[in-house]
Amino acid sequence: MSSCYVLGNRVDPLTLAGAVARVTEFIRAGTPHHVVTLNAEIAYRAYCEPELQALINRAHLVTADGAGILWAARKLGTPLPERVTGIDLLQALAVAGARQGWRFYLYGAAPGVAEAAAARLQKEHPGLVVAGTSHGYLSSREIPGLIEAIKAARPHILLVGLGAPKQEYWIASHLEELQVPVAMGVGGSFDVLAGRVQRAPAWVQRLNLEWLYRVIQEPGRVKRTLALPKFMLVVLRQAHKRD
């Protein structure tokens, strides 16, 4: 199936299983690949920020991270098969990675969080290889050392939890230098895995209210959610023009 576009941002019409299969192909190829999990907030920001939109559209895989993207795709006449969030894809890749011997590197979040997230992943997926971790509060002077540490660890998958779109810009800037087969931004997934933040219950996810659950847990996110009505308005305008 061909990609669809939401506010000019490419989204690949894949299920979670399809996304894992695509990542498996990237690892077999061995060349660097950038994976983006796109939600409505970042889609709207990219709509207003051409540099970010170009980065997203250059990525090797873009998944629909959130109900907002699915809703927009339906409105624009190019429905997507299902939501593929960053944390769900991360967990699915951990399952496949434990089976296939892939090496993972976790970079991001506050000190101690990536290590705790790695420990939980290894407990839940026996045999999973974590080649290294680093927190995300490094100075610019420390980044060259991080780059060398990642290169020395030779991961198949680099998970970057710096928050979007900072993590997307970071990956794009260092992908060729790192030569990691797969680099993927995972937002706040390390905090969830480490138990610092609770993910919304399944019933809340089914109601497409996970964003509200996050805001209740982290009131500081309120300002970010103001992009959602703007996103919906632009989508409705574009859908109206289609009709």
Automatic annotation (TrEMBL):
Catalyzes the conversion of GlcNAc-PP-undecaprenol into ManNAc-GlcNAc-PP-undecaprenol, the first committed lipid intermediate in the de novo synthesis of teichoic acid. It catalyses: UDP-N-acetyl-alpha-D-mannosamine + N-acetyl-alpha-D-glucosaminyl-di-trans,octa-cis-undecaprenyl diphosphate = N-acetyl-beta-D-mannosaminyl-(1->4)-N-acetyl-alpha-D-glucosaminyl di-trans,octa-cis-undecaprenyl diphosphate + UDP + H(+). It is an enzyme of class 2 (transferase). One of its GO terms (biological process) is cell wall organization. HAMAP family: TagA_TarA. The gene is tagA. It comes from Moorella mulderi DSM 14980. Belongs to the glycosyltransferase 26 family. TagA/TarA subfamily. Its EC number is 2.4.1.187. This is N-acetylglucosaminyldiphosphoundecaprenol N-acetyl-beta-D-mannosaminyltransferase. Keywords: Cell wall biogenesis/degradation, Glycosyltransferase, Teichoic acid biosynthesis, Transferase. The keyword Cell wall biogenesis/degradation applies. It comes from the Bacteria. GO terms for molecular function: N-acetylglucosaminyldiphosphoundecaprenol N-acetyl-beta-D-mannosaminyltransferase activity. PANTHER family: PTHR34136, UDP-N-ACETYL-D-MANNOSAMINURONIC ACID TRANSFERASE. It holds the Pfam family Glyco_tran_WecG.
